[in-house]
Amino acid sequence: MSLYLASWNVAGWLSTAAKIQQHHGSVESWMRQHKFDILCLQEVKTSDRALAENPHAHAAELVDYETFWAPCRKRTKTGARSSFSGVATFCKKGLCSHADRNVLDKGGELDEEGRCIMTVCRNMAIFNVYVPNNGVWNVQLSLKIKFLAALRTSMRRMRSLGLDVILCGDLNLVYRACDQYPMSRNVDLEACLRAGEDGNEEEEEEGVREMVQQVKDNLGKIEDALKTKVAEEVEIFIPATQRKERRWRFFIVVDGERKVKLGKPISKEESLGYPTSYTLQAGGVKEEETGEFIICHPPMHMRLAELSELMEKVAAVCWSEEQLHKLANSKYVKSRSAPIVKQWIRSVLDDDEMVDSFVEFHSKARCRFTCWDQYTNERYRNEGARIDYILVDKKLFSSSARRGIELHSPSHMDPYSAEAAAWACTEGGRWVAAPFEGGGIQDGPEETYTCQFRAPSSGILYTPPQYSDHIGVSVIL
């Protein structure tokens, strides 16, 4: 008998559950329409006390499902319990034989974060996780590394007990460049400088070789210009408020005399020194316990958007959208996640013999992202990243996994194309961006809340943008 498992970062369960109840009567009715057997939620942002005081608002007591919760139990500076992070797993009654929210360090600092809960269903240990992000200035990278190490140890322990392992949730990482918006991908400039040394230029797509040569010819000039980089306070007009406001902006000097501005205005002065903005230097943090320097941004790597801007403003080389697309999908481009984090997931996939269920079924899919910045309406331009995953032990996947229906797309489009991915983000334009003058995301017509319901599939669930800045991922086993 197959099992349909879904995972979703809800960015605050109470507000999401309220919207689901508004549009579908109840959370349980919504789950039945999706045909979920197991639903793993991340970033529920609640507390044990809130759950006990108002289980109905949390949909914590359902007829056909059991719910298991791991809220954040850390205390804030004032001594109150934090409602940050938190995960929850909903299982059809009779499926789950065991649940544990103290699986990383036996109820210690990591478990108190409320980022992991493990449920045993049939012969499967399902880890529902919300992995820490790097944080502002990468201050949480050390925590992230500790979390991932403890998680891997716990997964291995479950295998030693004879259980198959499933890891699902928001992993806050991108290990494949194609799972990130093209202009946000990192160009490996060292690789560009080495181009031609291996004798494989003929394998490159037409036009990429010329772009790489342009980078080689002008990189020295770009380096010289970046040495002059300064941040200055500027006054700009904000259409949303109809007022002038103070912002900060980067400037460089080109050819020793021409002053050029870079990027967009920055609202917070402390963001000016962020270690990955317009730099060819390595960025990272010092590990608290060992003192080791952990690289989060390798040297000689730069976002494609920044490189393109510098090529135009410093070297007068303007690349077309077609050229940028080619470079973004070339061997010279990598994802922007920290190398140590990418190494972790590669080891889990290769050494621990797990598979990325989405990649196994949809390896040719492009720009199928699961998270976007809602504040800048990025979903409506499909400028996001795939950071939500369901990883499955290879043996279990090979014996049980099914594809189900194809990725959501109109019949006249290739479902693996970037065009189809952009269509699915907005249901062909039926979900609209928040108005520029403010007011937040608007409610759509009633029918736009039912198009999320499709037959079970191993892929992506396009939940409405009003529910969360993430969408769901799923697998049939």
Automatic annotation (TrEMBL):
PROSITE patterns: AP_NUCLEASE_F1_1, AP_NUCLEASE_F1_4. Residues 6-175 form the Endonuclease/exonuclease/phosphatase domain. GO terms for cellular component: nucleus. GO terms for biological process: base-excision repair. The keyword Transmembrane does not apply. Mg(2+) binds at residues 9, 43, 170, 172. The record marks 388 as: Important for catalytic activity. GO terms for molecular function: DNA binding; DNA-(apurinic or apyrimidinic site) endonuclease activity; double-stranded DNA 3'-5' DNA exonuclease activity; metal ion binding; phosphoric diester hydrolase activity. SUPFAM superfamilies: DNase I-like. Keywords: Hydrolase, Magnesium, Manganese, Metal-binding. InterPro entries: AP_endonuc_1 (IPR004808), AP_endonuclease_F1_BS (IPR020847), Endo/exonu/phosph_ase_sf (IPR036691), Endo/exonuclease/phosphatase (IPR005135). Probably binds two magnesium or manganese ions per subunit. Its cofactor is Mg(2+); Mn(2+). The record marks 172 as: Transition state stabilizer. Belongs to the DNA repair enzymes AP/ExoA family. This is Endonuclease/exonuclease/phosphatase domain-containing protein. It comes from Guillardia theta (strain CCMP2712) (Cryptophyte).
